[in-house]
Amino acid sequence: MRDADYFTELFWFTSVVELGSFSAAAEHMGVAKSSLGKRVRHLEERLGVQLLNRNNRKLVLTTIGEEIYRHALDMLTAAHAAQICASDTLERPGGLIRVAIPTILSEWLLKVLSQFKNENPDVRYEVHIADNLSNTALRHLDLCLSVHPSPTDSAELVVRPIATLQQQLLASPQFIQNLDNVTHMTDLRNDQLLAWGANGNPYPWVVKKTTRIIKNPAIIAPDLYMLKEAAKAGIGVACLPLLACRQELESQALQPVCENAQPEPLQLNSLTPSFRGITLTTRCLIDAIRKASAETEDQEEV
Question: Bigger pLDDT: 117 or 302?
Answer without folding.
Answer: 117
